[in-house]
């Protein structure tokens, strides 16, 4: 039973750490001031399947820290049948995604493009043919204009499929025998395609794309090794020998003749390193925050290590060990932006003040955190359609509402991340995520782009925060806030 539970926890952390690397959004004046000054990118989108009233959403991220730069940009079809975007960006290079916004709240937005690399000064015309059929989604894009070569290169690579032949027999007694030391033998065709664009794209972009390609092979190989380990080695004789061999073969992390900065800006490569470090911990020692931190520190280097540490702190900054991790991490981080990112994460530690953010209530009146001065405050962040938010309200929060209904120095602050005000109001009436015993407020349409969510890297729900009567953070989204009995104990101590 312990083994199965351990495996579930391991897989969960690997998924969470890898996804966290690219999904968390950090924003503060101190952080963004350390990133390069504004420049611009321009996109003109000719979306062939556009319908009257369609809206496209452009999300732009800085590659250095994978930080969302301000709000998403939105565009509707102009008189020429084109969606125009012209917006400032910070830094030299980053990523953007493009979505079609659905008119109905019950339908999901449609991704029109895979994440694309941008460079400051890009002025791109994009013709998109997107077909959503019963048997699949098909998208082709044609790029032209200043800086379009890199987009065209990625489109060509996307259409060329990699076939990786990893025979099962290689794992019979010598699971490391087939490691792809010569990566070119596996993805030679894609490398040839990329090389044909080398003279027309910047060195930064060339090596980032190459790192992404290499990561495909490395991740596939690691997945095969991981599967073999759990099926054939975990809990059996020889487990220790396997761990030593794994560490010796796959560490230290190789750079494959790609500049350190490009590796640190490659989403695919960093995702691979995240999974590699997590798996290494599970097979060689007790799995905890300290062992993950130690593995990153010992086996990564340069900007890759710096970027991995930023990711690491996105998950552990609120733990009791965070300060000791931080004191060690700052000594190996040379980039001021990354240092600022870690410091920003530490803002949500216990015994720090929650800033005085502004929200809107159901009557349209402004509500601030400071309005609840001299009261203990339990903040619950949710959104319509969040299954776990509904479960938390039913099993925990509704009971807390009832128990402390007469307690005048305690308030439940229910913050909805819904962007649509009417949907939010209907959810209040439905009594599924919140109730009349709470102060119900929302982000005035900003959703997860609200400054509080950005500053504290809140990108999921439910998120629970407990403030004492001085406005200090007592607890930030820990397990104890999700359990009724332990939450009662925490409130009674305030």
What does this structure look like?
A hairpin with an 8-residue loop joins β6 (93-101) and β7 (110-119). The protein has helices spanning 2-23, 29-32, 149-159, 184-195, 203-233, 239-250, 260-264, 267-284, 289-299, 302-316, 322-329, 336-345, 387-403, 421-430, 451-455, 484-492; strands spanning 38-47, 55-62, 67-68, 73-76, 83-90, 93-101, 110-119, 123-133, 136-146, 358-361, 366-368, 376-382, 410-416, 439-442, 463-467, 473-476. It is globular. The chain has 16 helices and 16 strands. The two termini are 38 Å apart. It has 3 domains: 2-29 and 161-348, no CATH class; 35-148, Immunoglobulin-like, CATH 2.60.40.10; 358-492, Glutaredoxin (3-Layer(aba) Sandwich). The protein is 40% helix and 22% strand. It has a 7-stranded mixed β-sheet with strand order 11-10-14-13-12-15-16. With 494 residues, it is α+β, with helices and mostly antiparallel strands. Mean pLDDT is 79; it is low at 1-38, 103-107 and 166-175.
Summarize the structure.
With 494 residues, the chain is an alpha+beta fold. The chain has helices spanning 2-23, 29-32, 149-159, 184-195, 203-233, 239-250, 260-264, 267-284, 289-299, 302-316, 322-329, 336-345, 387-403, 421-430, 451-455, 484-492; strands spanning 38-47, 55-62, 67-68, 73-76, 83-90, 93-101, 110-119, 123-133, 136-146, 358-361, 366-368, 376-382, 410-416, 439-442, 463-467, 473-476. The strands form three sheets. The protein has a seven-stranded mixed beta sheet. Strands 2, 3, 4, 6 and 7 form a five-stranded antiparallel beta sheet that branches. It has a four-stranded mixed beta sheet with strand order 5-1-8-9.
């Amino acid at each position: 039973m312990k083994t199965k539970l351990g495996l579930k926890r391991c897989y969960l952390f690997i998924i969470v750490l890898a996804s966290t690397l690219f999904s968390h959004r950090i924003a503060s004046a101190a952080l963004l001031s350390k990133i390069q000054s504004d420049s611009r990118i321009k996109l003109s989108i000719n979306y062939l399947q556009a319908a009257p009233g369609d809206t496209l959403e452009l999300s732009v991220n800085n590659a250095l820290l994978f930080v969302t730069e301000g709000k998403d940009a939105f565009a509707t079809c102009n008189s020429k049948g084109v969606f125009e975007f012209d917006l400032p960006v910070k830094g030299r290079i980053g990523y953007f995604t493009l979505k079609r916004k659905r008119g109905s709240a019950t339908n999901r937005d449609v991704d029109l493009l895979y994440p694309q690399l941008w460079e400051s000064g890009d002025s791109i015309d994009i013709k998109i043919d997107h077909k959503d059929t019963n048997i699949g989604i098909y998208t082709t894009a044609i790029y032209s204009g200043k800086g379009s070569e890199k987009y065209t290169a990625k489109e060509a690579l996307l259409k060329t499929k990699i076939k990786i032949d990893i025979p099962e027999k290689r794992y019979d007694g010598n699971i490391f025998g087939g490691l792809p030391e010569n990566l070119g033998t596996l993805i030679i065709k894609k490398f040839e395609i990329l090389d044909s664009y080398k003279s027309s794209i910047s060195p930064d972009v060339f090596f980032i794309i190459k790192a992404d390609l290499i990561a495909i092979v490395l991740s596939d190989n690691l997945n095969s090794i991981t599967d073999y380990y759990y099926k054939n080695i975990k809990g059996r004789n020889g487990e220790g020998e396997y761990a030593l061999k794994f560490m010796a073969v796959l560490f230290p992390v190789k750079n494959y003749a790609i500049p350190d900065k490009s590796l640190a800006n490659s989403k695919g490569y960093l995702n691979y390193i995240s999974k590699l470090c997590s798996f290494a911990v599970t097979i060689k020692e007790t799995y905890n925050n300290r062992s993950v931190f130690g593995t990153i520190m010992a086996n990564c280097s340069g900007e890759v290590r710096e970027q991995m540490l930023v990711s690491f702190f996105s998950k552990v900054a609120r733990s009791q060990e965070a300060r000791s991790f931080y004191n060690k991490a700052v000594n190996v981080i040379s980039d001021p932006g990354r240092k600022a990112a870690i410091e920003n994460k530490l803002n949500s530690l216990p015994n720090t003040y929650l800033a005085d953010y502004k929200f809107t209530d159901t009557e349209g009146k402004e509500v601030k955190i400071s309005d609840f001065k001299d009261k203990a405050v339990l903040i619950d962040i949710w959104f319509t359609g969040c299954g776990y938010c509904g479960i938390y309200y039913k099993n925990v929060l509704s009971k807390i509402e009832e128990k402390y209904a007469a307690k005048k120095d305690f308030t439940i602050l229910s913050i909805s991340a819904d962007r649509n005000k009417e949907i939010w109001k209907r959810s209040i009436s439905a009594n599924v995520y919140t109730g009349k015993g709470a102060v119900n407020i929302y982000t005035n349409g900003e959703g997860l782009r609200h400054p509080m969510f950005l500053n504290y890297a809140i990108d999921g729900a439910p998120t629970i925060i407990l403030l004492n009567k001085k406005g200090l953070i007592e607890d930030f989204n820990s397990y104890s806030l999700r359990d009724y009995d332990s939450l009662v104990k925490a409130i009674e101590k305030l």
